Amino acid sequence: MDNASSIAPDDTVLRTAFLEQMRQVPGAVAIIASAQGENAGGLVATAWSSLCADPPMLLACVNRSASAHDLILATGAFGLSLLSAQDSAVVGQFAGKAALAGKDRFTPGLWRRGPRGQPLLESATVAFECVLEATHSHGTHTILIGKVGAMHRNAGAAALLYLDGKFASAVPA
Predict the structure, then answer these.
(1) Among the residues of the chain, which ranges form H helices?
(2) d(CA 121, CA 139)
(3) Sheet of 48-53: strands edge to edge?
(4) Domain residue spans in the chain?
């Protein structure tokens, strides 16, 4: 038996190794956004997925330090827009690289509000408007469980992925 494998790594070493490993896992890039009246916010996320189809539900993980976190909880609803390969500029607006905050991140004409008032990106590969059904706090994040209501898609649009610190696109083989 290898002695090195039986020694627990230091938390810092483990965290660094974990982040390096996760860089190799492609993530579908989405904007998770919420709005309540004139107040709006959003963030870039790759930690999201479908949860079930009966009823249609999504799971999304949001860092509690994200500026939109509390707005999502207060609103009780959110929009999730899977970015298309042509939407990479939108990432900068929501990742803090463009010095924009809150509602200023939403470029007029590119977004619409779903029936429940949540922001959905018009050019998104797919977009879902969700009502917050449940939350679970774990580590640095809140896990959001959203019941899907309104949806739209742009057939044929290639999804934007994040892999090894770079953007890529997903197209059917």
Answers:
(1) 11-22, 69-75, 88-94
(2) 29
(3) 39-45, 30-36, 77-82, 126-138, 141-153, 56-63, 48-53
(4) 27-164
Tell me which residue has tokens 């494998």: 5
User: What are the pLDDT digits (tens) for 67-116?
Assistant: 999 999 999 999 999 999 999 889 989 987 778 889 999 999 999 999 99
Domain topology for 27-164:
Pnp Oxidase; Chain A (2.30.110)
Which tens digits make up the pLDDT trace of 111-132? 999 999 999 999 999 999 999 9
Q: Cα dist. 71→26, 74, 88, 101 in Å?
A: 28, 5, 24, 13
Q: Which residue has the tokens 């996320």?
A: 45
Non-local CB neighbours of 105 within 8 Å, separated by 6+ positions: 40, 41, 42, 93, 94, 98
Say how many residues make up the chain: 173
Q: How far apart are CA 22 and CA 16, in angstroms?
A: 10
How crowded is residue 53: how many other Cβ atoms within 10 Å of its Cβ?
Answer: 8
Range 78-90 burial, b when 16+ CB lie within 10 A, else e = bbbbbbbbebeeb
